[in-house]
Design a protein that fits this description.
The two termini are 16 Å apart. The chain has one domain: Rossmann fold (3-Layer(aba) Sandwich). With 153 residues, it is an alpha/beta fold. Helices cover 37% and strands 22% of the residues.
Length: 153
């Protein structure tokens, strides 16, 4: 399973209900385009995303490329509960990609992992628990830094 943080979208907007419509910025559009290529070979059966604009825009190019419909789910919004996010993970096939927010990733793993905008974690289920096993840096940033994938224990 792939857990993706949305691509770059600039600074948060106020009030919070307005922030739902915040779009990707220039870097974010490059990240979304590059993500399409970086993950095109991955086995992805479903793409589930937070309904926030920046998440939808992040995975739309990939969904179009692989011929999948985007599924929007409120369990992936920034203020969604850990319980609802875990319940969603349990219902999905392992070959799923979920696009969400920093807050959700931190909540799922008790703040133990970080994820830059446009980065993703490969998750595995181990004894009824999801754990991050491989970090995939944001493609557009990766090209500039010249680094490869980083493993995690």
């Amino acid at each position: 399973m792939l857990l993706l943080r949305h691509a770059s979208a600039g600074e948060p907007m106020s009030p919070p209900w307005l922030d739902r419509e915040r779009s990707l910025d220039g870097l974010g559009r490059v990240q979304a385009r590059d993500l399409r290529q970086a993950l095109a070979g991955s086995p992805i059966e479903r793409i589930v995303t937070s309904p926030h604009a920046r998440c939808v825009e992040t995975v739309r190019p990939l969904a179009s490329l692989v011929g999948l419909e985007l599924e929007r789910h409120d369990a992936l919004v920034p203020n969604g509960s850990r319980k609802s996010a875990l319940a969603l993970l349990e219902k999905l096939p392992v070959e799923s990609l979920l696009c969400t927010h920093r807050e959700v990733i931190e909540r799922l793993f008790d703040g133990a992992v970080r994820c830059e905008k446009g980065g993703a974690w490969v998750l595995e289920q181990d004894a009824e628990r999801w754990r991050p096993v491989l970090y995939l840096p944001a493609p557009a940033l990766e090209r500039r830094r010249g680094r490869g994938r980083a493993a995690v224990a």
